[in-house]
């Protein structure tokens, strides 16, 4: 496997970045991945401006009625095999924008997503981990192996209930 | 036998040398920016990946011109390696660049067309230098055949020092390095996305990359040809010139197209013309 074609394919993942409806937190952290401190070009990754040259579509932010069409357009221009990575909690559920009158929710309502990277915003380390997971999926897709859509972790955060909740928390 | 060896070297070894040089370029660029950078063979990985990707095509015309771009680039190299006509090589090289322009203009993407127009401006800027180079070699050797260069008693650099300086500036344009990387650039996302190569995907982009490897070898080979007879000195100078081009790429911003043409048509072209006049005067006075 070390020198097979699919392995080589995984050594040169170029990504294109599309900002759906993001607050720019994820976008700034994504750019941090390109800086000398993190340097994703170590893995052969390049930030390209053109979906036709890309292997990975990186999406940030939640989807709304206006940009769903644009996102589908960008996705349609990706040559196969390709992988979609959603950065941040907004791509999963809509994040803090969930439930707004104009927000559809997560990116997976519009296009299939392969990897979700949790966080608000995710740390660059988490993003790079997500990219490397995406590369593994890219290799599987190139080899013609099936790949399951991304699973979302369900974490429910509820305020403590009852009159003495704060005290029991402190104890 | 020598012809077969030369053909093998030019068609098979040249792109591999170009590939390693481009890999070294990316590593050195990364180190200059304080990054670790990709492995040395990253261009090979890119090539294999692009070859495996789905070929997205806008129209058939653009594909035809990709093949012509590569074929004429190889033809230029073969002509020069076999000691052929330098004027023909000049035209073949120009048509190679031109086919990229036509291919990029055949699609309706505005960014691709901006890149194509800028590529024409680049050709307008560097072609005079290339023509003056050929004229200078003719004045020195009395022949337009490339094989005549090998029969010189003194290397070309002695009689064409100013043309050499002008060629170094033109080289920066041909290698798509800042400040002249206006037609296609790895860095100009906002401005022209990817310029002339914008509408090429997968294998066709890989072919353009291969043509670029051939071209890197060709351009540095011409640098080495200035020192012919001391070929290892020539190879050393070519590597130093390439390293210099990478440093200039990293310390310069991308500048305007009109500035590029103005810059080339003043100092480098004038330097080359002075050199030609000097050669001509020496020749007519029987020096």
What is the element layout, followed by pairings?
The complex is a heterodimer of chains A (171) and B (287).
Chain A: H1 5-9, E1 14-19, H2 25-32, E2 46-47, E3 56-60, E4 63-64, H3 67-76, E5 83-87, H4 90-93, E6 103-105, E7 115-117, H5 124-142, H6 165-170
Parallel strand pairs in A: 1-2, 1-3, 3-5, 5-7
Antiparallel strand pairs in A: 4-6
Chain B: H1 2-32, H2 42-52, H3 60-81, H4 86-105, H5 110-141, H6 147-150, H7 156-159, H8 161-174, H9 189-192, H10 203-225, H11 231-251, H12 257-284
Helix pairs in contact in B: 1-3, 1-10, 1-11, 2-10, 3-4, 3-10, 4-5, 5-8, 5-12, 8-12, 10-11
Outline the structure in words.
The complex is a heterodimer of chains A (171) and B (287). Chain A has 171 residues and is an alpha/beta fold. Chain A contains six helices and seven strands. Chain A has a single domain (5-170), classed as Rossmann fold. Chain A starts with a helix and ends with a helix. With 287 residues, chain B is mainly alpha-helical. Chain B has one domain (2-284). Helices cover 75% and strands 0% of the residues of chain B. Chain B has helices at residues 2-32, 42-52, 60-81, 86-105, 110-141, 147-150, 156-159, 161-174, 189-192, 203-225, 231-251, 257-284. The longest helix of chain B has 32 residues, at 110-141. Chain B is globular. The termini of chain B are far apart. Chain A binds chain B through residues 5, 8-9, 11-13, 36, 39, 41-44, 46-50, 52-53, 55, 77, 79-81, 142, and chain B through 26, 30, 33-39, 42, 44-46, 48-49, 52-56, 186, 189-190, 193-194, 198-202, 205.
């Amino acid at each position: 496997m070390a020198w097979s074609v699919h392995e080589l394919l995984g050594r040169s993942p170029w990504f294109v970045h599309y900002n759906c409806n993001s607050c720019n937190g994820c976008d700034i952290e994504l750019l941090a991945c390109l800086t000398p401190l993190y340097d994703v070009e170590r893995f052969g990754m390049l930030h390209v401006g053109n979906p036709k040259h890309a292997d990975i579509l990186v999406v940030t932010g939640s989807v709304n009625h206006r940009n769903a069409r644009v996102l589908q357009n960008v996705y349609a221009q990706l040559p196969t095999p390709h992988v979609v990575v959603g950065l941040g909690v907004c791509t999963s559920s809509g994040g803090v924008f969930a439930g707004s009158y104009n927000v559809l929710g997560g990116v997976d309502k519009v296009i299939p997503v392969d990897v979700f990277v949790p966080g608000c915003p995710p740390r660059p380390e988490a993003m790079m981990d997500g990219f490397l997971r995406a590369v593994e999926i890219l290799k599987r897709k190139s080899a013609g192996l099936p790949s399951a859509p991304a699973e979302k972790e369900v974490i429910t955060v509820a305020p403590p209930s009852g009159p003495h909740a704060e005290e029991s928390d402190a104890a | 036998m020598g012809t077969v060896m030369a053909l093998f070297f030019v068609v098979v070894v040249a792109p591999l040398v170009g590939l390693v040089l481009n890999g070294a370029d990316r590593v050195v660029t990364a180190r200059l920016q304080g990054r670790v950078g990709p492995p040395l063979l990253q261009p090979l990985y890119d090539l294999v990946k692009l070859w495996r990707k789905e070929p997205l095509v806008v129209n058939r015309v653009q594909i035809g011109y990709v093949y012509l771009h590569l074929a004429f680039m190889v033809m230029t190299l073969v002509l020069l390696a076999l000691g052929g006509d330098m004027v023909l090589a000049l035209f073949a090289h120009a048509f190679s660049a031109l086919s990229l322009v036509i291919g990029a203009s055949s699609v309706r993407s505005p960014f691709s067309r901006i890149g194509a127009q800028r590529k024409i401006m680049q050709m307008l800027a560097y072609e005079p230098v290339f023509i003056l180079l050929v004229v200078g070699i003719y004045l020195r050797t009395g022949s337009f055949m490339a094989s005549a260069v090998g029969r010189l008693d003194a290397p070309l650099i002695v009689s064409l020092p100013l043309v050499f300086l002008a060629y170094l500036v033109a080289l920066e344009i041909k290698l798509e390095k800042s400040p002249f990387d206006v037609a296609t650039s790895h860095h100009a996302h906002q401005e022209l996305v990817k310029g002339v190569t914008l509408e090429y995907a997968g294998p066709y982009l890989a072919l353009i990359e291969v043509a670029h490897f051939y071209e890197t070898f060709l351009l540095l080979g011409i640098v080495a040809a200035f020192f012919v007879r001391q070929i290892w000195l020539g190879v050393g100078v070519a590597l130093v010139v390439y390293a210099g081009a990478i440093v200039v790429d990293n310390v310069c911003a991308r500048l305007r197209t009109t500035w590029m043409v103005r810059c080339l048509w003043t100092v480098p072209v004038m330097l080359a013309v002075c050199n030609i006049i000097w050669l001509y005067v020496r020749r007519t006075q029987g020096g």
